[in-house]
Design a protein that fits this description.
Elements (H helix, E strand, L loop, with lengths): L3 E6 L3 H12 L1 H8 L3 E7 L16 E2 L2 H5 L6 E4 L7 H10 L3 E4 L2 H18 L3 E2 L10 H8 L5 E7 L2 H13 L3 H10 L8 H4 L2 H15 L9 E2 L7 H9 L2 E12 L2 E12 L11 E8 L3 E8 L3 H17 L31 E11 L4 H11 L4 E6 L9 E8 L2 E2 H12 L9 E5 L4
Parallel strand pairs: 1-2, 1-4, 2-3, 4-5, 5-6, 8-10, 10-17
Antiparallel strand pairs: 7-9, 7-11, 9-10, 11-12, 13-15, 13-16, 13-17, 14-15
Bound molecules: NADP nicotinamide-adenine-dinucleotide phosphate and L-homoserine.
L-homoserine binds next to helix 7.
Length: about 425
Amino acid sequence: MQAVNIGLLGLGTVGCGTVDLLTRSAQEIERRAGRRVIVKRASVRDLNKPRTCTIDGAALTEDPYAVIRDPEISVVVELMGGLEPTRTLVLEAIAEGKHVVTANKALIAEHGNEIFQAARDRGVIVAFEAAVGGGIPVIKAIRESLAGNHIQWLAGIINGTTNFILTEMRDRGMDFSDALAEAQALGYAEADPTFDVEGVDAAHKLTILAAIAFGIPLQFDRVYTEGIGAIGYEDIEYAAELGYAIKHLGIAQRTESGVELRVHPTLIPRKGLLASVDGVMNAVLIHGDAAGDMLFYGAGAGAMPTASAVVADLVDVVRVLSADPEHRVPYLGFQDHAISHTEIVPMESVEAAYYLRLQVEDHPGVMADITRILAEHAISIEAILQKPSQSPGQAELPVILLTHVVREGRLDEALKQIAQLVSVSKQITRIRLHAFQ
Ligand code: NAP
Ligand code: HSE
C-alpha cells in the first residue's frame, strides 16, 4: 500500500517526540496502520533554532501554509499550541480536505465546536487523544470503550505541571518557583505557564472530558477554575495531619440540577489511589453505572508520552482513510443530533466539605465567634486543628477547620461574616474536600 504523507505544524517538545517515535517505531506503526507514515514537511517559527530531533532540512519551512496546502499531504499534525494562528491554520487545513491530529487542548476546548462542524462538513477526521492526560488513552476509553455506560462523574489530576509542583513542595520542601522552573526545563509546562498554575490548562482538559463523558457541547467558559497559587507548604502539612492529600483536580459530575464543571485544589483521603499519583503523573477516576469505578493512570506530559497519543491518533486516521465518513466514531462520541444541552450547575450550588485555614488573634472568645457564625449557617465542623504559637510574641495563630458537606453559597456567606471579625485575618484559605478514592 502507498505510504501516507503527513505534515507537522510545530517541532518543539511534542513535535520532536512525535518525529522520534515515528522513526524508532516505523515498522511497528506500519504493521498496525497497514501503511508507512512519512513526515513530508514540518513548519517552525524559527528555522535557525536548534532541534532535539533530526529531520531532513529540505522538509523544514517557516511557512505553515506550505504544509497545509501541500497536495501530497493527507494528515496535518498540529503541535504548535495556542489559539491563533492555530485555529485559522486548522480550519484552512480542513478546508483543504486534510485530516487533523492535534495535542492542543486549548484549541479543542475553546474552538472545538466550530472545528468539528467544519470537519463534519468536509468529511475529515479531527483526532485529539494527546490533548488530555498525555500518554493515557482516556479519550478513546471514554468515547469508545465505555460507550455502554452512563458516566456519572469523573475526577482527575489532569495537569502534570501542577502535580509535579505540589509533589516537589511536599517531598523536597522545594519553593514554588523553583519547582515550576524545573517543570519548564523538563518540557511539561505550557508556553505560558500561568495556564498550568492558574488551572486554565486543566479547565481546557476538563471541558473535553465532560463533553465526551456526558454528550454535551464543549463549553470552556462555564468551567469554574481555581489554580494552586493560594496553597502554602503549611496547607499540605496540615492536610496530611488530618489524613488528607491536596491535589489539583478537575471534576465533572452529573447532579439532579445539571452538570458540575470545576477545577480546584481538593483535599482527598491520603490512602486513596488518587492521593498516590505524584510528580508529572496524571490519573482520571471515572464512575460508570455499569463498569463502576475505573482509574486511568500514566504520564500526563513530556515528549514521548504525548507522542505516544499523537501516533495512536495517526494510526487510527491512517486505518480509516478509506472508510465512509458516516460510519466513523463521532467527534464527541455521541451522534451529533444527540448532544444535549444540560444545565451547568453554578458554583454556589455545588456541595462539598471544606478545609479552612484562618489566621486568628490568640485571645479568648475568637473560636466561639467563628463556631457561632458557622452554626448560624447550619455548617457543622468535622475537625479542628489549632496550632500553637511558633515564636514568642506571635500575634496570629493558624486554625484549621474541616467542615461537613455544605452548599458552597452558604459557606461563602459564613466566610464573609467570619472575615469581618476583628480578630480574624481577612485572608482565609479554603480548599474543597471530596472523598474520591
Ligand atoms: P513547544 O515546545 O513550545 O513547541 C511549539 C512548536 O510550534 C515550536 O516548534 C515552535 O517553533 C512552533 N510554533 C509555535 N508558535 C508558532 C507560530 N506562531 N508560528 C509557527 N510556528 C510556531 O510546545 P509543545 O510543548 O511541544 O506543545 C505543543 C502542543 O502540545 C501544545 O498545544 C501543548 O498544549 C500540547 N501538549 C504539550 C504537552 C507537553 O508535555 N509539552 C503534552 C500534551 C499536549 P520554534 O521551535 O521555531 O519556536
Ligand atoms: N502543560 C501540560 C501539563 C502539558 O503540565 O499537564 C500536558 O498537557
